[in-house]
Amino acid sequence: MKPADVRKLSSDDLKGEATRLRRELFDLRCQSTTEKIADNSRIGKARKDLARVLTEQNSRANGAKA
Asked: pTM, whole model, 2 decimals?
């Protein structure tokens, strides 16, 4: 997910996307310990996407306060 795509999402969509990415990251970590993952780079991509979503949420929250 690109940063421009994240900026286009509404606040409710950002919350849902953060929840989905947290769940995906949890599932990937579980798979990495119990079985082999076909693509290990998915963990890093999920972490970065989650960071982008959380950063946008925080910037909107701080922007609303100012």
From this structure: 0.88
Confirm or reject CATH 1.10.10.10 for domain 3-65, answering yes or no: no
| Contacts (Cβ under 8 Å, ≥6 apart) of 32 | 40, 43
Handedness of CA 17, 49, 3, 56 (dihedral sign): positive
| Segments making up each domain of the chain, as ranges | 3-65
Question: With contact defined as beta carbons under 8 Å apart, do 31 and 39 qualify?
Answer: no
Residue 14, classed as helix, strand or coil, is helix
pLDDT digits (tens, 9 = 90+) for 32-61: 999 888 888 999 999 999 999 999 999 999
CA 22 to each of CA 39, 43, 62, 65, 66: distance values in angstroms, whole numbers, following the listed order? 18, 11, 22, 26, 29
- 3-state SS class at 35: coil
